[in-house]
Design goal:
Elements lengths: L2 E2 L4 H4 L9 E2 L3 H4 L2 H12 L5 E5 L2 E3 L4 E2 L2 E2 L2 E2 L6 H10 L4 E5 L3 E4 L2 E4 L1 E2 L17 E4 L2 E4 L5 H10 L3 H13 L10
Length: about 180
């Protein structure tokens, strides 16, 4: 049975007796490490677990930073990693990390997809656990991909104004080895 951590108003309208969706407090997943581990084990037994999370920045290797802006703390993990891992391990499960491709800071548009995370940013979901990444420019599946394949895929869903620079940086820093083309 699908579960959600916090029901939206449209999900809540399904009613408490709905068999389509089970909503549980996020605290059941991340209130304490032991409960989070127990939740992850329980969800592994479920088929088709879907996890949808937001992030503020992702690097070209696929590390998602959802808790800070550099050294400035924004939020806690909210159970993101437990839900991501539950979906990853679930038969037929899917995990989605969603973000807008850009943001404005002091009147300057910046990419949320970057070569390296902002110094001080906390990695919430490591690259080895990231499956689908979604922006307004598309969706890519990073599961099982090499670093070069991840970089190329993420560049493809970055804002078009930043793609050329990201690709140049990926080649310069050897995330995509010279002579490799996709």
């Amino acid at each position: 049975m699908p579960r959600c951590a916090s029901p939206t108003p449209s999900i809540a309208r399904l009613g408490p007796d709905s068999r389509a969706l089970e909503c549980q407090a996020a605290s059941l997943s991340d209130d304490a490490p032991a409960r989070g581990a127990e939740r992850t084990r329980r969800d592994h037994a479920d088929d088709h677990v879907i996890s949808i999370n937001n992030t503020t920045q992702i690097d070209l290797q696929g590390q998602a930073a959802s808790e800070s802006d550099g050294h400035r703390h924004i939020s806690g993990t909210g159970g993101q990693l437990q839900f991501v891992r539950s979906a990853y391990a679930s038969k037929g499960g899917k995990s989605f990390i969603c973000l807008t491709s850009t943001y404005d800071k002091r009147g300057e548009r910046r990419s949320r997809i970057v070569l390296n995370l902002t110094p001080g940013n906390v990695v919430t979901t490591p690259r080895s656990d990231v499956m689908f990444v979604v922006t307004e420019y598309g969706m890519v599946n990073l599961k099982g991909k090499s670093v070069a394949e991840r970089a190329k895929a993420l560049i493809g869903i970055a804002h078009p104004d930043f793609r050329e620079d990201l690709e140049r940086q990926a080649y310069e820093h050897r995330l995509i080895p010279r002579g490799v083309s996709f």
